[in-house]
Design goal:
This protein is of the alpha+beta class and 113 residues long. It has five helices and three strands. It is elongated, with a radius of gyration of 15 Å.
């Protein structure tokens, strides 16, 4: 699991920012519970219990992205996105892609962090 801080100063749009942060994570192929087909096939063959945990709808929630409130201040709020990723070797690339995608979605909504 990785943790990504997201600082929000526009508290009037906090709910929309939270919604976009979770939706962006859910749509990223490097963030669980998304698993590329090739990797699903490998998991099914070499680690059937892990495969089942990641594909069973009841257990899949354990790997779904979550947001928590990390801190509050007079200038805003810091959220923390807690994400399970598919490839730790590409952690920095996944984080960058996630943050850039989140920023692009928020800009389309007229929201800046």
């Amino acid at each position: 699991m990785i943790s990504i801080p997201i600082t929000v100063s526009d508290l009037k749009r906090l709910d929309k920012i939270k919604e976009e942060a979770l939706e962006t994570a859910k749509n990223d192929p490097g963030i669980l519970p998304n698993i590329p087909l090739r990797e699903k096939n490998i998991l099914r063959d070499i680690a059937p219990q892990v495969y089942k945990a990641l594909t069973d709808n009841n257990k899949k929630r354990d790997y779904s992205p979550i947001l928590i409130t990390r801190s509050l201040s007079s200038t805003g709020i810091t959220l923390e996105a807690r994400l399970w990723i598919t490839d730790i070797a590409h952690k920095d690339a996944i984080i960058s892609r996630y943050l850039e995608s989140l920023n692009a979605h928020l800009q389309k909504e007229g929201i800046s962090l």
